[in-house]
Specification:
Blueprint: H1 2-51, H2 64-70, E1 77-83, E2 89-94, H3 102-113, E3 119-121, E4 130-135, E5 139-144, H4 146-216, H5 224-250, E6 259-262, H6 263-273, H7 275-280, E7 284-289, E8 294-297, H8 299-315, E9 322-329, E10 333-341, H9 349-352, H10 362-367, H11 374-384, E11 387-394, E12 397-405
Parallel strand pairs: 7-9
Antiparallel strand pairs: 1-2, 1-5, 3-4, 4-5, 6-8, 9-10, 10-12, 11-12
Length: about 425
């Protein structure tokens, strides 16, 4: 259920965030393109006007120099420098109410000195202060774009701030939407858990009565077979009910019940407990357990987790083989590995084996009284402790690997 909520939340959060980012990018790109186009158009327009000064002029028509001199631009500071054949400045025109400063004149001389051919340069508006259109042996038009640069930077900063604030709002909205979407699923899930728990409890009493009654029956040659069948099936049902109750209990482990425990000691004790069972099947258990690894956990559940993994390894190991139990710790995580040599698990089954009632060998599991709930219980326990569990087979060995994140662990050497 927690995985469903996380996936739903991430999906909603990412979708809304992508829309927010796309809108911010679109807004800034459109603003940039509009300013860039405006600057380019003004540079081109002034260039075209100055080009006409070389054309023959009808005396009855207003001189083109006057037209150029009187051309005003409201949105930008634009300056035109008329050049002679030697690229010397012979006239200076301001197309706004601003006077031509020494800084602009110095900039113009620098551009003329460093350009041998006609050139238009606007550059990246977020970094540049001036754009220009240089016409060799004709004119130089300079646009002061510092205000445009500042405006674009302010828009960019505001966009980033809005995105930051928006992400917080999106996070809250995503949480609310996730709760709304998953609420029916959660209610159904809780009803299922309650049903399994209640049904299991209700079945225990009549089953206990049946088992006690069977024990009181007189056994003779005629009914011995049937009574033994009843006992066998009653025991199977009792085990099934117990496992269902265990599964229900491990669906959710309250964090307030977690205490710091020595997982090294838990694993070591469980390994010793199973040595006699392993010995009966000519299997040896080899341990590599780092000492004094402490974990914040529900002790009984971790104990059951280790028992399930070792029991599973013994039941699927080849005779006269070895089971390895490794417990290690580093700066980021604690890792528990239970390795056995036996029939490999196919890649398709590596996830399925943790599902409820899944059995890859139904005939074998039925004979051994197994129901495919052990690994489902193990996964519930690991997930409740913010960990991960996986299984894989390689080179004839099958490994069950459990990792607990350091954020949920408190270690002391």
């Amino acid at each position: 259920m927690e995985n469903l909520k996380k996936k739903t939340f991430l999906t909603i959060f990412i979708i809304i965030s992508v829309f927010a980012f796309v809108f911010a990018i679109f807004f800034n790109v459109q603003t940039y393109r509009r300013e860039y186009t405006g600057i380019l158009n003004n540079l081109t327009r002034m260039r075209n006007l100055t080009m006409q000064r070389h054309e023959p002029i009808d005396k009855e028509i207003k001189p083109i120099d006057d037209e150029l001199r009187n051309r005003k631009v409201m949105d930008y500071e634009i300056y035109t420098f008329i050049l002679n054949d030697n690229n010397d400045i012979i006239d200076k025109i301001s197309h706004s109410d601003n006077a031509i400063s020494d800084e602009i004149i110095t900039k113009a001389k620098h551009i003329i000195a460093n350009n041998n051919t006609s050139k238009v340069k606007i550059g990246l508006l977020y970094l540049e202060s001036y754009a220009y259109n240089f016409a060799d042996n004709n004119s130089l038009t300079i646009v002061n774009i510092s205000n445009t640069r500042n405006m674009l930077l302010i828009n960019l900063v505001i966009s980033l701030l809005l995105i930051g604030i928006g992400e917080i709002i999106i996070y809250i909205i995503s949480k609310k939407i996730t709760e709304w979407i998953t609420k029916p699923v959660l209610e159904s899930f809780n009803r299922e858990k309650e049903f399994v728990a209640n049904a299991s409890h209700e079945l225990k009493t009549p089953l206990a009565v049946m088992m006690a009654s069977i024990d009181c029956l007189d056994v003779n040659k005629k009914n011995e077979k049937w009574i033994n069948n009843l006992k066998s099936e009653s025991d199977r049902m009792s085990n099934l009910i117990t496992r269902l109750l265990d599964l229900s209990k491990t669906e959710y482990l309250p964090k307030e019940n977690f205490r710091k425990n020595d997982i090294s000691m838990i694993v070591e004790k469980r390994a010793l407990t199973f040595e006699s069972l392993a010995y009966e099947k000519n299997i040896t258990i080899e341990t590599n357990i780092a000492s004094k690894i402490n974990i914040l956990c529900h002790k009984e559940s971790i104990d059951e987790l280790v028992s399930i993994l070792i029991d599973n390894a013994i039941n699927h190991a080849q005779e006269k083989s070895k089971i390895k139990i490794n417990l290690t710790s580093d700066k980021s995580e604690i890792k528990l590995e239970v390795i056995n040599k036996g029939e490999p698990i196919s890649p398709d089954e590596c996830e399925k084996i943790f599902e409820r009632f899944y059995r890859n060998d139904k005939s074998h599991n039925r004979k051994s009284g197994r129901y495919g709930l052990g690994l489902a219980i193990a996964k519930n326990i690991v997930v409740s402790h913010n960990g991960n569990i996986r299984a894989y087979s390689q080179n004839g060995y099958t490994t069950f690997e459990v990792k607990f994140k350091k954020m949920s662990i408190n270690e002391k050497s």
